[in-house]
Amino acid sequence: FDMPKIKKSEIPKGEGKIFPAGAGHGIAVVHSENDEFSAFSTDCPHMHCNVNWRGQDKTWLCPCHGSQFDAMGKLMRGPAVKNLPKLEIKDLGDEIEINYDGREMHE
């Protein structure tokens, strides 16, 4: 499978965005105010719906049962009991490469 590459310029500072993945769920990427990127699977650990980015409060929200996660994928509100699965990022300069094979590692 190929590692998704994402242009850094596609995600404004302080925002999150969801990108399709070749396998499994989508890839949720957040660009922090201090210019760092983090990536997660959009797989909500509760019933495996896909979370959405909520720009107004900078959180990931699951449309199925209302589980909510902060920008860094940390659980804020259930029914989920785990965080979003974090994905490894490789910095390629103008782009980031996400290590995601469709398998979720919930912490």
Query: Main sheet: which strands, in order across?
Result: 1-10-9-4-3-2
Helix count from the secondary structure assignment: 0
End-to-end CA span:
24 Å
Helix content: under 10%
What general form does the structure show? globular
Query: What does the main sheet amount to?
Result: 6 strands, antiparallel
Overall mean pLDDT stands at 91
Which structural class is indicated by helix and strand composition? mainly beta
N-to-C SSE series? EEEEEEEEEE
DSSP strand (E) fraction? 35-45%
How many individual β-strands?
10
Radius of gyration based on Cα positions: 13 Å
**Unreliably modeled segments:** none
Question: Would you give an account of this structure?
Answer:
- This protein is mainly β and about 110 residues long.
- Helices cover about 0% and strands about 40% of the residues.
- It has no helices and ten strands.
- β3 and β4 form a beta hairpin.
